Amino acid sequence: MGQFIKIKFDIGYENERRKKMTMHMILALGILILMIGLIMSDKMAFGAPPILACLLLVVTGLSTVPQAFDGFVNPMVIMIAGFMVVMAGLMKTSLISKVQSSMLALVHKGGYKSYALLLVVVMLGASFVGGGAAGYYVLILSLISTIPYNKKMPTSKLMMPLGFATGHPLIPFNVAFFYGLTVSVLQTAGYHGGLSMTKFAVVNFILALGFLAWSLIAYRLLPDHPIAEDSVNEEVASTIEIGIKAMPAWKEYITIAAFIISVVGMMLMSMLGNAAYVIPGLAGAFLLAINVLDFKEVRDNMGTPVILMMAGVIGVADALANSGFTALIGKVVAHSLGTNINPFILIFIFALLTSTCATFTGSNMGSVFIFAPVAIATTMSLGLNPVAAATAVVISGWNGGYMPIDGMPAMVLGMGKYKLPQFWLFSVPMYLIRILVLCIGAIIIFPVH
């Protein structure tokens, strides 16, 4: 009798635990939706809705205070904040003046050809620094933000496509990270058939072409508005044309060196470990010490609304993941797909799930490790070669971006002064086209039969 009561108690406790987890999911999703709604409505200043969401996480018991505000000590946020300071210093050098002048010439020339050329140039640059590198997209977005408004080619038509272009190398020879990750998840799932890096790079090239095609089509859909006040643009132009000349040559060399050291440090993150996250901050502190920047400039760049947005959404993303939402989605999909599904549809579904999960949780790696093993196991159980699925799922983890709750999309929305519907008009079709082209490329280059 006592054993029966114990079993009944255990069942009841388990049911209560499941109800609690379900309530956690509902609350986390509700807070996420509220945050998105506030961003869309523009009722609060940019960067404020995620902070409010973090406060609500604590009030509802979904997170402790340290958990909710963990984003403010997140290594990536600290790295980007430090790099924003270094970028502020770099913007004062004649090197950036020359690069900016070249971009400015194309902008003043205006027209569709100049727009297309700017896209290709940024994508070629991504080939050398690595697609999606934080330092590169901050550099490009910062450059665009300094270009005065021009009716022939408004900077609002450049910020979004060029920002996303930084994640699409036109010559994808620098794919070691994604290649290694794909091999890792394949081996973890029990597949040891090998993976050609050359073919893997070709899939990335097909993806880049898909993005380029959409960006060229979407030019007329992009909004036309200034991304800064005219007085600010005039001040920036004056700083570039006059203020830079006053900077001593030795300060310019040190500032450029600080930028290079910061970028190299971030690229060697896997080798340097935690030190890589603070190298930009140390470089920024050195620029402050030699008076390239004053303290107000350092403070303003480290605490921009974009940084607040990045830091705030991390707590919301963690709460959503910790609620069990992503794991639940993975299990539901695995049990509902069945065995008679078309291989392309199967890969496409998992790529959509992975990229969407990464978009809403901010965890690219975590999303890949949730869905990639399920996708690989599912394809292998159907007697199919899992390489195409693994390739598409891994790459898709870094090709969401249709919601501005991650680093670069958040910066694009804020610095471009876009309304959320304007952002979606470009980003949602871009997202669907990228995932579709990625899956087509993967299944063509790596046949499943």
The tally of strands reads: 0
Portion in strands? under 5%
Helix content: over 70%
Computed over alpha carbons, the radius of gyration is: 23 Å
Number of helices: 22
Q: What class, by secondary structure content?
A: mainly alpha
Oligomeric state of shown chains: single chain
Mean pLDDT: 79
Shape: globular
In this structure, how is the largest beta sheet organized? none
Low-confidence stretches: 1-20, 230-244
Distance between the termini: 57 Å
The helix/strand order is HHHHHHHHHHHHHHHHHHHHHH
Summarize the structure.
By secondary structure, the chain is an all-alpha fold.
Features:
mainly alpha, globular, 449 residues, 74% helix, disordered N terminus
List the helices and strands and how they pair.
Blueprint: H1 2-41, H2 48-59, H3 65-68, H4 75-90, H5 94-109, H6 111-129, H7 134-145, H8 156-165, H9 176-188, H10 197-217, H11 230-241, H12 249-267, H13 269-272, H14 275-289, H15 295-302, H16 305-322, H17 325-336, H18 343-361, H19 364-381, H20 387-396, H21 407-415, H22 420-445
